[in-house]
Amino acid sequence: MKGIVLAGGSGTRLFPLTLATSKQLLAIYDKPLVYYPLSVLMLADIRDIMIISSPGSLPALTDLFGDGSHLGLNLTYAAQPEPRGIAEAYLIGADHIGNDDSALILGDNLFHGHGFARLLRETRQDIGGCTLFGYPVSDPERYGIGEVDDAGNLVSLEEKPAAPRSDNAITGLYFYDSDVVEIARDLTPSDRGELEITDVNRVYLKNGRARLVRLGRGFTWLDAGTHESMLAASTYVQVLGKRQGVRVACLEEIALRMGFIDAEACHELGARMKNSDYGQYVMDMARRLT
Question: Which keywords are on file for this protein (predicted)?
């Protein structure tokens, strides 16, 4: 299974913060925002990942992660010159995906919950078309909403419905089979000139090949695309770290726990950052999990 992190966009909602840097490089508590979506793909046991971003942001992202080999990953990069819709990721990443199943995650989404890694790995075993992840919200009229039957099959998809039939907001995490590239190629751009991911999902829905996995109680989903949501995400990560000793999206720890790297390599990565609390945590994890 291949992965894509779509870390593009101009970040205009975060001006002036993003006038000189990429949104994905801004801090969510103790690490760059892009760590969080990348960690989700790692938890799903996906190691071959393409990061798509604006041409101006790619050098910094490449400096941050390199080829990913230090984390046991194979990272490649591609440019999205203009934000032309989420589904364009599958045109840009067509060769990367090839004939494989894939997971696409938006670069400003944060997920966390007990058993999340197991859920992701189980879900990827039988995609059978399109699998979306829903999260219950109290204000569904602000989101894309998925209605499901008792078996979890999608019945309808609505964008910001005036009279929502469900509280399942569609999150920025999508699993697809290999048909998604051709589906994306056949899309007609919206009035805004964008290739909409909802249109991709509706093709699968029309063919009876779409389902939704509900992230219920015990899970957290945050879209860190505004100043307020970034602050909320930082506070959430800080509180978990201080109260429970949990470092959300610690890539080095995840790589170790997933068997992508060994304890010695993990400790070395932590030692490079030994003057920070984050580096000390990584070294401690390496010692504990030896």
Answer: Magnesium, Metal-binding, Nucleotidyltransferase, Transferase
